[in-house]
Amino acid sequence: MQSIVDHDIYFLKLVIITFIVLLCIIKSSHADSGPFTYPGNGHNYTRYDIGSGNYMNANMKCAMLDFYGGKNYAATFTTKEEFDWAVSVGLINNIPVFIGGTLSGGKLMFGQGPETGQLLYDIPIGRPYSFYQPIPEYTFPSSEMGQLYALFDGNVSFQGFQPFDQSLTSVICETGGVTDPILSQLDTIGGVLQISGLTGYNLSALTVTFTSTNLVDPTPSFGCVGSITKTSSSQVNCTVAPGTGSYNVQVTDGKKTSVAVVWSFNTPYLKSIYPSLTAGTLFTIYGDNFGDNATKIKVYLTSDMILCSVQEELIPGKAYTLTYDIPLTQQLLPITIIVDNVRSFLNQVPICKDSSSYSFFTPYTPMKSFVAFSNRIVTNVGPADEGIEPALGVIEFAATANLLIASYPKFYTPGRTWATWEDLAVTYPTNSFTRYTNREPIVPYNSTIVDVSQFNANGYLYFDFTNATIYRDSTINLQALVQHIPLVYLATDTAIRANTTGLASVKLNLTSYGSRFASTQLFFVNGTQVLYPGYNPVTNYGNIVISIPEGYDSIPYAVKTDSRWFNTTITYNPPKISSVSTTGTVGGAITITGTNFYKSNQVVSVSLLGKPCSTPTITSPHTEISCVVPAGSGSGNVVVTVGMQPSSSVPWQYNAPTITGVLASGNPSLLDITGTNFFNVANRIRVYASVPTRKNVQCTGVSVTTAHTRLGATVPKSMQGRTVNVSLTVSNTASNPFAVDLPPYLDSVDRLPYTEGSDVQITAYFDTVDKSGNNITSVQVFINGTTTYIDCPVRSLPPTAAILNCTIPPGFFQFSVRMGSPWGQSNLLAIKYAPPTVVSASPVKYEIGGLVTVSGNSFGNLTQPPLVWIGNYTNMISCTNATLLDPFRIECHYTGSVPAPADKTRSLNVTVTSTFGSATKEVFIYSIVLSCQNNCSGHGVCNTDTGNCQCDIGYRKSADCSIADAGNGGKPETSENGTTVIPVEGLNFTIAITHLREIDIDGVPIKTLPLADVEWDTELLDNDTMLHNGNFSYDSALISIISTYFADSTTITFAGQDMVMPANSIKYEITVANWTWAGPLSQLQVVYNSATDHQSMDGCQLSETNVTTSNDGDSIYWFQISSGKTVMNAKFANRLIVDDRVIRSSVKLLDKSDELYKNITSQSDKFNLLTAMTTPYFSDKVVLDPSFSALLKYRQDESSDPCSVTDEVSNWKIIVISVCGGIGLLAVASVSAIAIKRYRVTHGAKQKLNRLAKMNQNSSHG
């Protein structure tokens, strides 16, 4: 914090001191001289005394003063006339005075007034842009902080630079021009001139007029070339034609007109001179900004201003030869040039002598060692004459020393003489001179005999121009001699390039090889002098013509001029390939054309696909090569190498394979492909078959039958039975396609047909669209190669297969099939009939035995009955006298002697053996004594083996013989969602499968799936049968239900058990599959709910609903729910199918405490009964087979019952048996609400069923 405070106090003191100084300046300000008005521009100039101050005090002085409301600034002098006028009125005298001008980047420029930022003088290269007249010995400080000053001592007037740490007593201030138009600088070649300071002018209407100030030989007035371009609100661009001279420039827009502003083209300057010190001889100057009119050029030599005459214009605006008549009595420099009244004063000019150009360089501060100057000289001193770079110099000849002594201007300071550091050092112990910077030997000029040993002390060597002698010193400050040494090199490149053919004449542009105005212009190439015919070094500088011989790679090349060598190389262009002929895979000669192949076989090599192409031969020099390609295939690159130079790679490949023929034989088809360029290596060859829908299917087993011309390959079976395009690639080079018909391919049969005949699906490969674009819907399949055929419908199996649905006729022995197609006949597919399949067996009583009927398929020839055994794996008993009742059933006598398995989830094996094979299934269960429903109601006889009643005539439409034939209602209708409607008179019943539940070995539930969550897909198989497939969105389990309606009483068989289906009843076959088990000891329960009203009317009495079940062991096989005069019967098969085995079923009523009862309505007037069919663990599926019917009790005196309903329609009610809707669908709806008719499943069935479901739901709450 203290340092910050101290800093603030210091800054405050500095501000106070500066303010006091300014007050003192203002208070003490008085005009030392003036004011004066310069007629040339109308500006006012005043010289003010500033006491003793630096350039900042001077600038502040001008800035703080007000001259009649005008802005003051340090005066800028842009012309000799303006400067001389200031001398004439006493503004500039023998006391140095500050004027406007600053230093930046080695360039003097105007830092004040209208010309701010414009260049005045480029110090390193000695180029003036405006009037500037320095003295020879003046040195510029190392710091660029400072300002110009002016001086006139009564003899000489000049300008210098005063550094910031040195003071002067006066400053000249100028007023005027700040509000006038300001014009930028421009060389005599013309171009774009920027005019700024145009505030208040209408720039779109602007005109600019240039009027010459030369009153003797004025240039006609002119304006801008073309249109004036606006670049900002106060600035425009004006294109000026080439010209010279000084002008009064006036700007106007028709309403506002500026004062005349003095402006001139940039001053002329010199790059080099080629002097003659003898009057009457030619003198050459070379520079720029001389303009396009030589008559306006005046050149004066020496301070005596000896006028030269222009003899010849060598280069317009740049180079001239001069003569002068008056002998020189003063130093050659300075040279004064006046072009159309625009003047340059030049005393820093490169002087050409001895094939080099010499000049001096004034460093910012003289140093005690030329070493300190070296980097500055190279970077700051400009190139002389055509870009010859500067370096520290050495005077080697007396003539050079004499020329420089006679040329360099005299110093203003009395007694001061020229002495410059030289690029010299002494090498010991030889005591010889070398250049200090590069240690190259050199012999410097010295007017006396040099004892080199005297220079072995400390110090550096310099040349004294007074006596032309070399000295050593380490303490004095000297300037440096700058020598421009030409080094020959090409203008555009460091090497010469040519084709291998060489060049008869090539034009080289050499640069920096010496001055174009030098006396020697002889060129030597590799020691031989060359000269471009009509060569003119002035107008055709450096352009010579040489011849280049044939060659390759590169050869050394040297150019010599003015005793200086340029060592380079001729680099021959690398080979370039324009075309390469091809050859087949057998190999052979190829021809390569191009350029730069040279002419010698010994230096040429060819690489093809990474391997040599043998025997490369130049068949046409430089342009054509032949070589021999080995047998091969594929593609890659060709590279030609000549000497050490490779060409760019060019893509090349062996000729593409061409297929000319394809023959197909066998099935799957073996292709015999003929053509060319197949090569001879099979693993490089790929054969493909394609159709529009399937591209480039690869063939297998490719083999080369005949090298390069013949192949074999096998088509994949998936591409058979269609027209395919055969193509191939050899090392990825593709052939043409070739179309060929391939016959169909019969692949496989999904299952073996039964001997009694059955439907099978044959997978075949062929196109199901024929050649005419028609769909193939069926095909003829021929049996055993005969003309006997069967029609098989076709189902497409994209992308290339199809399924043939064929009905195979009965038979016993293996046979074969073949199909026909538009592409020919297929292969023969051998099929044999399936061996025996055991599905079920009828029961007999244990140890009593009897006839057993075994059901299944493929039991064989009726004349050759199969053999049957029943038992377990260790004890199989023959079932004797086996007889084929028909192709599906065998009857035999079994003793019933093998005990049933102790495991209730297992059963006995039944084995059937025929001439076609053998099959064993676990399907035999002993019969048990089963009760019948209501003991057949006194109208029939109970079959205790099956639990079925044999009812008397007139009672056969009910399972328990309890109902007369007239009372069973209308036909049930089953909807798409599995809901069945049974019209009866009486009470409503609903039966639904509600849950699938897995329980463990102790009966504890593990997983429960409500069937209300099932998504159903329904298919109508026929008028009486529907298929319902369901799945859960969150579980893998699948459920399938086939519901079948029986209009009349009939007997069906399930898993070997005969079951009587009453008239007007529904049977369900339920399959559960894909169950994910918690463990192998788990069991699955399929749970039903049977629901109705708790009470109902039976005539005039209110009757309680009750249930009656069978009592035949651990499982129930039927139950009846009676309510009033209506009975609902449910019956269950005493067996079920678990995977492929038949076991005894287990059906139980769930206890009222079971958790599933919680989901049932708690209304007291409702009766619910949950029944579970339990299955053991299964891997694939389980099949169950319950059946249901609802019956109306028949009474003889019903018609006279006073409590009966006489309205026929209102007597009928609907019982809905819901197998997929869940517990929630309790149906209470009358037939009259939907009309008595047969419901057909049509397009509009879903809307009708939705209405029915809504009616059922509404009724359940009524």
From TrEMBL:
Pfam families: ComC_SSD, TIG. It comes from Cavenderia fasciculata (Slime mold). The chain crosses the membrane at residues 1212-1236. Keywords: Membrane, Signal, Transmembrane, Transmembrane helix. This is EGF-like domain-containing protein. The lineage of its organism: Eukaryota, Amoebozoa, Evosea, Eumycetozoa, Dictyostelia. Residues 1-31 form the signal peptide. It comes from the Eukaryota. Residues 949-961 form the EGF-like domain. CDD domains: IPT_PCSR.
